[in-house]
Design a protein that fits this description.
By secondary structure, this protein is mainly α. The protein contains three helices and no strands. 87% of the residues lie in helices and 0% in strands. Helix 1 runs antiparallel to helix 2 and helix 1 packs parallel to helix 3.
Length: 94
């Protein structure tokens, strides 16, 4: 997969996460007062992870295509860490 294809894949994943964030915001509105604080913490974590993902996408876009293969492994490791954090935060809404 070349850099452009990889970036498009990351953008699609980030779009999914943004959809989950929107669902979480609705859940917060409907939650009891006891749950709101907990949900708001998780929403903040999800938002933080989505912002970090956006930063990684921008980094990938700015990497020169000839340098892409050198940076790809680091990018994949960082993205997987971000994805894990997002998934953990989202799972607390279920």
């Amino acid at each position: 997969m070349n850099r452009d294809q990889y970036v498009e894949m990351l953008k699609a994943r980030l779009d999914e996460w943004n959809g989950q964030i929107s669902k979480a915001e609705v859940q917060i509105k409907d939650a009891s007062d006891d749950m709101k604080a907990r949900y708001e913490e998780q929403l903040a974590e999800m938002t933080k992870q989505a912002e970090a993902a956006q930063d990684k996408i921008q980094s990938a876009i700015q990497t020169h295509s000839e340098d892409w293969e050198k940076h790809r492994a680091n990018m994949e490791t960082a993205w997987n860490d971000i994805a894990e954090g997002f998934t953990k935060a989202w799972s607390r809404f279920s």
